[in-house]
Amino acid sequence: MRMTQEDGDLDSLVRKRIRALRVAQGWSLDELASRAKLSPSSLSRIENGQRRLALDQLVTLARALDTSLDQLVETDTDDVIVSPMIDGAHGLMRWPIRAEPGMTVMRQRMTNPPPDNPASLRAHSGREWLVVLSGTAVLLLGNRRFRVETNQAAEFPTMLPHAIGTAGGPCEILGIFDREARRGHNADKVLRDRQR
After folding, report:
1. CA 44, CA 23: separation in Å to the nearest integer?
2. Which residues pair with 148 in a beta bridge?
3. What is the mean pLDDT of the chain?
């Protein structure tokens, strides 16, 4: 069977996601390999694209990474950017999002562009929403790059390796996290603090 471009993109995304989830947990290759009952060299070859992805290994890796196979192979990045709905009669601007209980809202001013190094993209369970209040944000999702302008919003699964930065000058965003995304971002922050 011949592999299509779409299959190759999914293959690459899943490999990046496995590595990003491992790094987000603060685990070495040895630690995840032990949890997934693989050799460290096999896991390294899986992450680097030098070994074929087998379904049974993906199931085992998903369990070891405390996620599901569905989340590990999710590709839904359609409709990432959401434009506001303007109700001129009432002077309101609304962004339709799928809200869930237990969500956290955070206002953030950013001055740095997103990282150049794909290894610094993070992935974790959950969903995230953001609204750009001023400036222009750049959202990196796997291999894709989105410009999110003032008054635009974005919604995405945080299982996709991701990072957010600015395009040019400062940018102010309102970030909305479900419980899992908030937990994942807190773990990322602890890991970054340890690495300093």
Report:
1. 13
2. 137
3. 77
pLDDT exceeds 50 at position 5:
no
Question: Which domain, by its residues, includes 68?
Answer: 5-72
pTM: 0.51
Number of H helices and E strands in the chain, helices first, is 6, 10
Q: In the chain, which residue ranges form alpha helices assigned H by DSSP?
A: 5-25, 29-36, 40-48, 55-64, 69-72, 179-195
Q: Could you tell me which residues are beta bridge partners of residue 139?
A: 146, 164
Same domain, 33 and 107: no
Per-residue CA distances from 184 to 5, 57, 81, 85, 162 (Å) = 31, 24, 22, 30, 12
Distance, C-alpha 98 to centroid of its chain:
17
How many angstroms separate the first and last alpha carbons of the chain? 47
Query: Where does a domain end: 43, 72, 101?
Result: 72
3-state secondary structure of 132: strand
State both tokens at 23. 């790094």
Residue 164's DSSP bridge partners are: 139
